[in-house]
Amino acid sequence: MAMLKLNQLTAGQEATVSYVMGDGPVSQRLLEMGMVPGASVKVTQLSPWGGPMMVNLDGYSLSLRSTEADLITLLS
Amino acid sequence: MKPAIAFLGNPNTGKTTLFNALTGLRQQVGNYPGVTVERKHGQLTTPHGVVELIDLPGTYSLAAQSPDEEVVANVLRGHQKGEQPLSGVVVIVDASNLKRNLYLVSQVLEVGLPTIVVLNMMDIAKRRGVTIDVTALEKRLGVPVIPMKANVGGGVTQLNAALMQVVAGQIKIPKPVGLRDPETGKWQSGRTDACGDHPIAQEAVARYNWIRGVLHGIVFQVPSTRSHFSDRLDKVLTHRVWGTVIFVIVMLFMFQAIYSWAGPLQDMIDNGVSALGEWVGSWMPSGVLKDLVQDGVIGGVGSVLVFLPQIVFLFLFIAFLEDCGYMARAAFLMDRLFARIGLSGKSFIPMLSSFACAIPGVMATRTIENRRDRFVTILVSPLMSCSARLPVYTLLIAAFVPSVTWMGGLLGFQGAMLFAMHALGFAVAIPIVWILKRTVLKGATPPFVMELPSYKMPSLKLVGWRALDRAKTFVQSAGTIILAMSVVIWALSYFPTADHNYFAMMGHAIEPLVKPLGWDWRIGMSVLAAFPAREVVIAAMATSFNVNVADGDDSSGILQALQNATWPDGAPLFGLAVAMSVMIFFALCCQCGATVAIIRRETNSWKWAGFAFAYMTILAYLAAAIVYQVMAYFGVGI
Amino acid sequence: MTAQFVIVGVVIVGAVVYVSCRLWKEWRHSQSGCSHCPANHLNSKK
C-alpha cells in the first residue's frame, strides 16, 4: 500500500492525519499547529506551479507549501 | 516592586486589543536588552495598587523557534534579563479555534504561575455554531476562564477582578497537566508506533490527547453545510488570478483615494498657511526678522504641513488592511514569487507595512525565524515607498503629470502614476533579494507554514487611534526637525547676500554631481538637505525656489514656482523627465536618518546599516540618471 | 535693526544646535535599545 501524502490531495478532498515525518523545526511547527494523528484536514485551495496550498485543519485555515505537505502522511 | 502580570497567546487572538483596552495610553514600548524583541509594558491601577502588565509577542508554543518566542519562554520562566519574576499569567485564547489554542495553555499550566484564561472571540465562535460550556472548562483546566467578545465588549470588568485576585494571591498555582512521567521523562502519548520515537512528536500527541479529553463533551459544534464567510471570501481573495487582480485594484484604489480625498483638506490647510503668511506680512516691519518668519518658518513648515491629510489617509488604509486579516492573504499570494527568489511569503508582510513607514516595517521582521532571511527582508524594506515620500510624489505629479481620469474619476492618470512609484520599490526589491540570497546572505529557501486568521472587522477606534498617533508625530516633526532645518536652509540662502548666498555656493559646488540626473543645484541641495527627514525636501525646495507664501494670490505657490523655474539660460528646469528623475531617486534612496538608525539597531551592526544606505543611494542615483538620460535622448518630457 | 539681527541670530543658532542634537540622539538611539520613536506605537501586532 502506497502512503498517501497531504500534497497528493486535490482541492475539496478531506482526510485524516496519520503522522508527520521528520524531527526538524518544520515538523515541530506542524505538530504544534495541530497536525497530529487523528486530526482532520481538508484542502481548500491549491495553487499549481509551486505555489502554497491552503488547508482547513480542525476548523482553522493553514497555508503551507507542497514541500511541507510532503511531510504529512495521511490515513487512506 | 510592583507585581507583574504577563499577557500571552497565539498570534491573532486579539491580545494586543485587549491589552490596549486595559492599559489605555499608559504604555511604554522598548526592547529587551541584548535582543531585538519588543518589550511592551502598561500599567493598571487597582485598589490593591498599581500592577505592571506585560504584552508578550504572539506565540504558538513555548518551545521557541524565533527570537520572539524565546523571549516569551524566558519571561515566563523568570529567566529573561530585564524582566522581574511574574506574579501571574493571562493566556488569551481564540474561542473559535479552541483546540489549537489550548496547546499553549497546556504548556503554560506547567510553568507554575497563577494563570487566568481569557476566552476571546466568543461572538465569532457563536457565529460559527460553536458553543462552549465555560463553567465546565474552568473546572477541567483548574483556572479561572473569562469569556469575552472580539472587540472587547463585556468581560473586561471580570478580567479586572481576576487580575486583582492574582495580585492578592487568591488564585492558586494550577495543578500541572502531568503529561510526562516525572521519572523517565517519557511523554504519555499513548502510542509510540505510528508517530515514531521523536520526543517532539510524542509531546505534541500527548498534549493534543489531553486537549481532546478537556474539550470532550463541553464543546458543541453545530454541523453546517454552508461554508463560512471567511472561507468563501478566501476562494476569491487567494485565487491565483483573481486574488492578484484584486490586490492590484485595492492598491490602485488606495493611491487614487489618497489623491482625491485628501485634496480638499489639503486646500484648507494651504489656505490657512497663506492667510497666516499674509497676516504676518501685514503688521511686521520689513527686515531680516520678517523674512525669517515668512520665508523660513511659515514657508518651510507650511509647505510640509499641507501633506498631513494624505499621510493620515495612507495610515488609515494600511492599519485597516493589517487589522482585518488581509495581510496574511497577501503573503499567501506572494509566496510563489518569494519562494523563487529565496524567501517566503511571510517576508511580504513587513514589506507591505513599510509602505506606511519603514521603521515599523523593519521591526515587523522579528517574526521571521531565520536570521539571514530576516536581514534580507530588513535590507529591502526601506525600498518600499513610505508616507514621507508621498509629499514629493504628489507635488511633482500634480505639477507635471496631466490630470486625466477615467471611469468617472475613479481611476486617474495621476493616481496611476502614484501607484507606479510605489510599485517601483517593490519591483526593484525582487532582484535585490535574489542577489542577496545568492551572495552575502546565502541560504536555503525558508519553509512557509502560516495561519490565515479569519477576517474580522477591525476596531475602528484602534485604526483611528493609530492614524491619529501618526498625525501627531507628523505635526511634531513639522514643529521640530522640519522647522529647524527650514531655518538653517533659509539662513544659508539669505546670507551673506540674497544673490551670493552660502546655499548657492554649496549648490554650485555639487552641481556637476547631480547634472547627469537633469537636476540643477537647487534640486540637488534640497535633496541633500532632506537626510534628517525626507519631508524637509519640500521645505528646502520652497526656500530655494523663493516661494513667497504671502504674495501668492492662490494656494499653489510651490507648485507654480517649480513649473516656472528655469536654468540660468532661461530654459525651463522641470519637465516630466526631471520630475521622474527626482521621484525615482526619492523612491529608491535611503534619505532617512531614522531608518539607518533602526537598521543598525535591528541588525546590531553598522555594517548592514551602511550597506543599506550605500546600495540604495547608488541604485537611486543610477536609476534616476538612466531614466533621465533615456527620456532626454528621445526628447520625451524635456 | 540690531535687535532683529540678534533675534534671528539666536533662532539660527538654536536651529543648528537642535538639528545636531537630533542627529546625535538618533545615533545614540541606534546604539541602545531605546524606544521613543513614533513607529513603535504603530507596531501593535497581535
CATH topology of the domain at 4-221 in chain B: Rossmann fold
Q: Which pair of chains has the greatest number of interface residues, and how are they split between the two chains?
A: B-C, 54 and 32 residues
Would you list the SSEs of chain C in sequence order as H and E? Answer: HH
Strand order of the largest sheet of chain B: 2-3-4-1-5-6-8
Cα separation of the termini of chain C: 59 Å
Low-confidence stretches of chain B: 551-555
**Which outline of chain C best applies?**
rod-shaped
Percent in strands of chain B:
5-15%
Which descriptor suits the 3D outline of chain B? elongated
**Structural class category of chain B:** alpha/beta
Chain-wise SSE layout:
The complex is a heterotrimer of chains A (76), B (638) and C (46).
Chain A: E1 4-5, E2 14-20, H1 25-32, E3 40-46, E4 53-57, E5 60-64, H2 66-69, E6 72-75
Antiparallel strand pairs in A: 1-6, 2-3, 2-6, 3-4, 4-5
Chain B: E1 4-9, H1 15-23, E2 27-31, E3 38-46, E4 49-55, H2 67-77, E5 88-94, H3 98-108, E6 115-120, H4 122-127, E7 130-132, H5 134-141, E8 145-147, H6 156-167, H7 199-215, E9 219-221, H8 229-237, H9 242-283, H10 288-305, H11 308-324, H12 326-341, H13 348-353, H14 358-364, H15 371-380, H16 390-400, E10 405-406, E11 411-412, H17 413-438, E12 449-452, H18 460-494, H19 502-514, H20 521-529, H21 536-544, H22 557-564, H23 576-588, H24 593-603, H25 606-633
Parallel strand pairs in B: 1-4, 1-5, 5-6, 6-8
Antiparallel strand pairs in B: 2-3, 3-4, 7-9, 10-11
Helix pairs in contact in B: 3-7, 9-10, 9-11, 9-17, 10-18, 10-21, 11-18, 14-24, 15-17, 16-17, 16-22, 16-23, 17-23, 18-21, 19-20, 20-21, 23-25, 24-25
Chain C: H1 2-31, H2 39-42
